[in-house]
Amino acid sequence: MDDVNGGNSVVTACFIIIGDEILSGRTQDKNLSYLATWLNEIGIQLREARVVADDPDGIATAVNECRAKYDYVFTSGGIGPTHDDITSDSIAKAFGVPIELNEEAHALLRSHYAEGDLNESRLRMARIPVGALLVENPVSKAPGYQIENVFVLAGIPVIMQTMLESLRHRLVGGSPVRSRTIGAELAEGKLAKSLGALQEQYPRVSMGSYPFYRSSRFGVSVVLRSMDEDALEAACQDLIGIMRDLGADPWIGEQDPR
Amino acid sequence: MDDVNGGNSVVTACFIIIGDEILSGRTQDKNLSYLATWLNEIGIQLREARVVADDPDGIATAVNECRAKYDYVFTSGGIGPTHDDITSDSIAKAFGVPIELNEEAHALLRSHYAEGDLNESRLRMARIPVGALLVENPVSKAPGYQIENVFVLAGIPVIMQTMLESLRHRLVGGSPVRSRTIGAELAEGKLAKSLGALQEQYPRVSMGSYPFYRSSRFGVSVVLRSMDEDALEAACQDLIGIMRDLGADPWIGEQDPR
How many domains does chain A have? Predict the structure, then answer.
């Protein structure tokens, strides 16, 4: 965890989405934006995401590259009972540890399934890399787990979301990044020069410019983000002034409330 | 381009999504599933996707890693007129070439903007790495471009989609992957063992199992994908037989049509 930005601590994360179904276009990922927002609220910045195929070497490589580079890594997908659920084997490979039937996970599954229904395939969900700490799954019991700084979670959004709540207390966040959005009916290209100058004036506020076309109106949303609330507030006021000088009537937030 | 799968040619691609707005959770990416489906139709398999921040070194590293690994790389985002549009500088850095005002791109912008509206910021959109070939943008003129096997496209979905049509003729696809989906009201864990055996029986058909919960019904969709249509058809028929033996009444397609 770096200590930059004038004493504010920056904690970073990476998200690895595992699954052929995302790369084939069959399934639209819904977990990335949820995780990004959720992490941000506890002061952790998502810095990269990768979508990787159901391939053990590819998964292991991505996990090893990312766990060395970021404070936390989260994975989603591939921990179910079928032959294409290869995440846990790939994680064991990445860490160079064996994978075994985990007694605690086994007990959880036994409590969930009727006797006779806990077949060989479902038992696969209790195979966990040695040394991992389980993450509770209140929805369907089969657990996720943590191994060092890597959290291995389910891909089904509702299950991933409850797993995040289960593991929240294990994360140490930094200073949260505050965000404000200022919008205006103004072409991005007209605002660009002044916005670039404003960015130079406030190096600790990151400014993103996003053009839009909504209800037959062209405009721009500028998102300002910073760990320094005073600088953020001052930059917002300056930006509103710049937009007014360009003849626009800016609003605060993503949508014009009027 | 490998020549595996019994003489079928496999052409691969990677998608690099550039933008802090995706990693902050502000914007939900819509381009990945579109590109995946579009590429698949012309026989190109999307093998990996990455979401990277607005950071020149991070972008350059991702581009260089991926262009060495895949036949084609597509990027989206960061080619607009504002200070946070740093994709083109990062691409020039990745390739070790200068970036200059491109005369053809300049002419396109001149034809689009009224005199006096083509300001310094908008001219940024005509700064293109030397050696690149432009990709037409019928929507708003500011072009994308191709440099070696990397295609640099806009992030706004409608513009990215028209750019793909503009560059389609430059891509050489392999054998398209055919796909069939078989669904049933059947717990994934009950099907898992037979499905694993079926996968072993048909190594050239990739089988993905996706549980669902819809309209108060639990079930599973199995997606079978192959470049070999005969094997695909045979595997589908076998799977339908397996599901029936397990007491289910399977259907073809994502949704039960009944």
Answer: 2
Q: How many angstroms away from the CA of B148 is the closest CA of chain A?
A: 23
Please indicate, yes or no, whether residues B248 and B128 belong to a single structural domain of this protein.
Answer: no
Angstroms from A199 CA to nearest CA on chain B: 8
Q: Which two tokens stand for residue A179?
A: 């965000």
Amino acid making up residue A80:
G
CB A120 to CB B29 under 8 A?
no
Q: Rounded to a whole number, what is the distance in angstroms from the first to the last CA of chain A?
A: 43
Residue B148 lies in domain: 11-170
Distance CA B197, CA B186 (A): 17
Residues B51-105 pLDDT 10s: 999 999 999 999 999 999 999 999 999 999 999 999 999 999 999 999 999 999 9
In a shared domain, residues A165 and A209: no
Are A193 and B48 a contacting pair at CB < 8 A? Answer: no
CATH code of residue A61: 3.40.980.10
Answer whether B195's CB lies under 8 Å from B236's CB.
no
A40 touching chain B per CB within 8 A: yes
ipTM for the whole predicted complex goes beyond 0.95: no
pTM for this prediction: 0.92
